[in-house]
Write a structure and sequence with these properties.
14 strands, three-stranded antiparallel beta sheet, 518 residues, Creatine Kinase, Chain A, domain 2, alpha+beta, seven-stranded antiparallel beta sheet
Length: 518
Amino acid sequence: MLKFTCCDAVGQFSQRVQAQVLRGIRRGFEKECLRVDAQGSLAQTPHPRALGSKLTHPWITTDYSEALLEFITPPSTDLDEPLRFLRDIHRFVTPALGEETMWASSMPCVIGDDNTIPLADYGSSNRAKMKRVYREGLGLRYGRHMQAIAGVHYNWSLPDDFWSALYDCCGADGSRQDFISTRYFGLIRNFLRYGWLVPYLFGASPAICESFLQGRKSDLLQLVPGSLYGQYATSLRMSDLGYQNSAQSNLNVNFNSLAEYTAALETAIRTPDPYYERIGVRDGEHWKQLSANLLQIENEFYAPMRPKRVSPDRPAKGLRERGVEYIEMRLFDLNPMVDIGITPEQASFVDVLLLMCLFRDSPPISAREQGENDENKRRIVNRGRQSDLYLLMHNHEQPMRPLAHELFDDMAPFAEMLDTAYGGSRHTSAMHLLRQRIDNPDQTPSAQVLEASRAHGGFFKYTMFASGHHKQALLAHPLDAETQARFELAARESLQAQQQIESQDTERFEDFVAAYYA
């Protein structure tokens, strides 16, 4: 029987009047994608000036590489606004790229050695230099190829009215912010248990360019010369070939409480690592990394989901002193079949999943259970479409498909709860359609991308085709004059803001870094 942390809460928020507070849920996307040249190689050009300053623009920046665009939608309570805004960003950026194109897949195009992956350059200010040194450190620690992978993050928060009602319903003790943080951490733990559904349903990176491996061995099969694939893979981006978080396996960061999480991150940014010490922090005036510690900064710690807070402080300090404000879900691949890389049903599904994770009982995760969670994710991303796949549940092997159906059953009340809040049947309809992918893995994006790659003669050729097709579709629907002017103004203002920061920056970089860690 499904257990909930507050026995009356689900029934309360399923009522039409109380369900209305869920209309205050705020959502936003952060989407990364590579710029490539006309031959499909990683762009070596600077970030286009017409797009504004990477350092200060609120919506258009870069992630690790100068060629790795990142688009950020403002948080919105409107169900449709985040994707609408994301599409507008694409329509603004596309003509500014000239002959270049946005690569449609999470896994990179044809790339050479690390020197062919340029680091993002944010200017001359201390803030800009810190971002660049951090990225140089990531390249030395994990390799630049891993940092050239693109994905979509989903930011999500519940409104104050909801938290007030839940706090009263549960008869909670302590401060409301402590209650909120505790419940968000319970949500995260459950997401670690059940989040494998996301790469199964939406994973779209079953194949890669062989150049990505740089001569490393793998168990992948050859699709055509130059293209490798996993026969049943859903998300190689999330596999050990992609984000290699095995290097962080000894950090002992857990999500059992806010205090434990922030303490572990604080320890990691202050504990030296012998290998990183051998790399060294500086070579004369040149900084190679921010520190020789286990983590340079807290954001270096990789996790499928992060608790977040907008704060002037370091992430761990801001969370410890002010609590969790929202969460960031990090498991979406770019869908190369879609011009903006993501579809509306993805947000509908994750909204339902996150609500179930919030309301469901969420005991602490032991080391044994964490091992199970990690192994389940590994099996899904590498072999998720295998018909006889088993997952681990409480030390027992169980077939994946019945487990997935059981989770869909458990999520059904929360889809209905959201439909009660917003009216219509958006969430229950999305769940019905997505549920068919459990028993029909050929309907998953990973299967469809693999089939398209075969039809086009390989992963590279298919992604080149999809990238060019999406470019033409976006160019065919330019922004209206008012929206275009709004984006142009934001770009100009961001360049002015960067100039102002640089003109006022007089502190030595060494002191700037020391102040960050203080």
